[in-house]
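Most newcomers find our protein records easier to grasp once they have seen one. A learned vocabulary of local backbone shapes supplies the integers on the structure line. An example says more than a description, so a record of this kind follows:
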Amino acid sequence: MRALVTGASGFIGRPLCAALAAAGYEVRAAVRDRRALSFPPGVEIVKLPDLAGTVDWTPLVDGMDAVVHLAAIAHAPRQVPDAAYDRVNHVATAELARAAAAARMQRFVFISSIGAQSGTTSDHPLSETDVPRPAKIYGRAKLAAEAAVRAAGVPYTILRPVLVYGPDPKANIARLKWLAGLPVPLPFGSLHQRRSLLALDNLVSVPPVLLALASGLIGQREKWEQLAGSLVAEPKKLMAAGWRPVVDTRTALAAMVGGQRHA
């Protein structure tokens, strides 16, 4: 099977491309900058268009059987206008989904976010049966993109990952790793809230299953609540589709702190 991965140079995209190539897929990696990138032999590297403008996805989807769409604005280093979130995370996704449908792709895997379903905390475990209530423009744009994917007429899988962690983590998990490394006592022992976390190795183990099976769902308040508030997402539907984690949370967190990928 031939698979296009957008955002292939990112935190998730690069190990995903490696996992797909190891599983026997022919991978086309769409990246913003093709310089100094390392992918497994045989991975085709192509230029990702500027998603801030209208995109002609036809050359990228040509000859592909499936696409995993990761490219998006996520952990922006500065304030991003709402219109940019909508253009990049919603409209560009809609354009890609329509191009995939026209190319008669077998599967469109859209990596959405738990932010499309909830604010940064929840008073109950989330599942796909809950009515989506995104609290920020990022989540609202992702939710609109989900609707566009469903309307495009292409066979699809939509994932809403919770906070993903692994070596060289980003955003809040990077802050938590930094705090854990400080040589001072921390008051975290008094916290009893529960949060779902997703190891990078477990996330990249998903697509080989989902490219062949039906859709599944797995389950980010500001800095403190994002670390300490409760947010649990149930992966029951995804597990019913055949997915199982390849590494347990304790092992994967230890590997993250040590800067290693799980073997």
